[in-house]
Each structure stands twice: as C-alpha cells, then as structure tokens.
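Data availability (excerpt). The following record was deposited with the supplementary files.
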Amino acid sequence: MTASYRAGDAAACAAMFTLDAQLYSPYAAPAFGREAIEALHKEWTHGGVPDKKLQVLQSEGSNDTAWTLNAYSEDGGKVRGNSLAVWQRGRDRVWRIRICSLNDDQREVNHGPTKS
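Predicted structure:
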C-alpha cells in the first residue's frame, strides 16, 4: 500500500480493498465500494506522495478476519493520524480491507496539545 500511495497508483491502492469495502475519513465523505475508494485515492495520491509512511502498530485476527491499527503520515508530518482496518480473507485466500476508518491527528500538529 505504501509503495502504491507514494507512486500515485490509486488503482493499486484500491485493489487492497474488497469490492464492497467501506472507507471512512475526516478528509472526505465516506466511500463505499472499490470504485469509490479508487476515485478517492486518485484525489489523495494525485502526483504521488513520496514521503507517505504507514506503520502497523497492532494487529490480531482469527480465521478469515483480522484487524490492524496503523499510524500514517505525509507532507513532512503535517498530515498524520491513525487508521483502524478490518481485513477479510477472500475465497482466493488474499487478505483485503473490508472496513477502514481514518482519524487525523491535526489537533496536535496544528494547534499543540489541548490545555486542561
């Protein structure tokens, strides 16, 4: 996913998702289905994102379902956050994302820590 994102390959990014996947993001309206997810990634990856970073923080699974908690960043760390992805293993035995929810960390990046 990282290599595809960096290269601006929206189709390859979308191929990581099931045909009926759901993507929730603070950066856009929800996207339902692989075609909508590819269209969204075309906007996000236009021209490539050479410093995109993705890191799996936690993961667990059982049988044909798994989840990952991930950290992401780009634009020199100006855009960063976490994502939670639910993975499903298909009949072809390939793991793809069924549901993904992104949460940005802009509060800390742009405004500093909140005061108590």
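Summary of structural features: The two ends are 38 Å apart (CA to CA).
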